């Protein structure tokens, strides 16, 4: 009996040690919104490619359950908790506190979540990683509260274990306003490059929409002031003075005929006959690959996923010089100043006039650039390297 008890004790001790060795690192992600945005897409792709044998993952959203929230729960089977700061902020903070107690790392996405994550990390003595996916802090395009929180976070940043900016320009802009984390890394947004492949231009549009064999301009983005649809539509009004042979396809959340403000812009610019409003779509990779040009007209960005997707699709890009867009597009397309509709129109016209050889060379180099630097597995590997390093740090 004694021998049996001893054997059982030894077995339990072994199991306990084994469980200690195999204990997963728990990461709780806190994100301000979880709808259709670039940071939300990056969070989804990160979670999708994490090693679930090593990491236990949860997500907290500070608003409502959006598209990516549903995908995270239904496709990835990761718990998403809603702690709505808008309805009852005190209750939401208490709920977040409870949900984060068992975490090893709190990883936050966007300014509001960064601030809350800071408070929780101090109270719970947890490791904290901030995520920055924004570059424009102008008063005209941002809410006062957003600017205030971004600047407050700069004052708090020196106690944050790591800060992740989605591009070098984003990092530079935030360090200029006082962000001084213990470690400030650039980890770019990654995509599944297998989903974005070159194809014959315009064929998909001809098949799906029955349009003529004319150049296709594509814009993908949600309805948001920073996307600057006013600049986009004004630029195409200018372009119509130079040429008539193009179609404009607009894709994204709330980009449909129910959007009266957008419809009015299009009507006033007399672009109704050449504009297609497609709303949210599941065939974005096909639309990307078959377009002649991808146009980004934003007043502010971090490192936009849509430009990476367009480059990977072998589609040349015209973009405003915001965030890390010039770092992305570089010599593979055209870059102009933000809020300059005439310059944007001239750049679009220039790109439409590329020779076949010019287009093919730029498209090929752009795709090579995307494949070399933005594959999601390469990006996730950088996070996998960061997490243990953060946990091994000794308290300062």
UniProtKB/TrEMBL annotation:
Pfam families noted in UniProt: Glyco_transf_4, Glycos_transf_1
EC number annotated for this UniProt entry: 2.4.-.-
Glycosyltransferase subfamily 4-like N-terminal domain: residues covered: 37-195
Record flagged with keyword Mitochondrion: no
Enzyme class: transferase
Domain Glycosyl transferase family positions: 208-355
Keywords tagged on the record: Glycosyltransferase, Transferase
UniProt keyword annotation of Transferase present: yes
GO molecular function: glycosyltransferase activity
Protein name: Glycosyltransferase
Organism listed in the record: Lysinibacillus irui
Classification lineage: Bacteria, Bacillati, Bacillota, Bacilli, Bacillales
């Amino acid at each position: 009996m004694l021998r049996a008890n001893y054997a059982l004790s030894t077995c339990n001790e072994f199991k306990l040690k084994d469980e200690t060795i195999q204990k997963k690192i728990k990461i709780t992600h806190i994100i301000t919104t979880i709808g259709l945005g670039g940071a939300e897409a990056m969070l989804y792709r990160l979670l999708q490619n994490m090693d679930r044998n090593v990491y236990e993952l949860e997500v907290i959203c500070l608003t409502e359950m959006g598209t990516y929230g549903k995908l995270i729960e239904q496709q990835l089977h990761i718990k998403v908790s809603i702690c709505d700061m808008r309805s009852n902020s005190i209750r939401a903070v208490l709920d977040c506190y409870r949900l984060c107690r068992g975490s090893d790392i709190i990883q936050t996405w966007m300014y509001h979540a960064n601030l809350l994550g800071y408070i929780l990390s101090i109270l719970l003595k947890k490791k904290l990683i901030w995520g920055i996916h924004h570059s424009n802090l102008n008063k005209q395009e941002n809410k006062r509260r957003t600017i205030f929180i971004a600047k407050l976070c700069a004052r708090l940043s020196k106690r944050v274990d790591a800060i992740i900016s989605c591009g070098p320009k984003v990092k530079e802009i935030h360090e200029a306003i006082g962000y001084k984390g213990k470690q400030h890394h650039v980890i770019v947004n990654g995509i599944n490059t297998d989903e974005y492949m070159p194809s014959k231009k315009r064929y998909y549009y001809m098949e799906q929409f029955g349009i003529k064999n004319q150049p296709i301009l594509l814009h993908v983005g949600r309805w948001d002031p920073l996307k600057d649809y006013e600049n986009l539509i004004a630029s195409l009004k200018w372009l119509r003075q130079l040429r008539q042979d193009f179609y404009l396809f607009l894709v994204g959340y709330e980009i449909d005929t129910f959007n009266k403000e957008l419809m009015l812009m299009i009507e006033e610019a007399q672009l109704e006959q050449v504009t297609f409003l497609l709303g949210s779509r599941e065939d974005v990779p096909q639309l990307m690959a078959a377009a002649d040009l991808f146009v980004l007209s934003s007043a502010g960005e971090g490192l936009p996923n849509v430009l990476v997707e367009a480059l990977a699709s072998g589609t040349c890009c015209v973009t405003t010089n915001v965030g890390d867009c010039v770092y992305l597009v570089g010599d593979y397309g055209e870059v102009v100043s933000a809020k300059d509709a005439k310059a944007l129109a001239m750049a679009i016209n220039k790109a439409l006039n590329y020779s076949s050889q010019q287009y093919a060379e730029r498209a090929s180099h752009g795709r090579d650039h995307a494949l070399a630097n933005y594959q999601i597995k390469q990006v996730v590997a950088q996070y996998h390297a960061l997490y243990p390093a953060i946990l091994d740090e000794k308290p300062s």
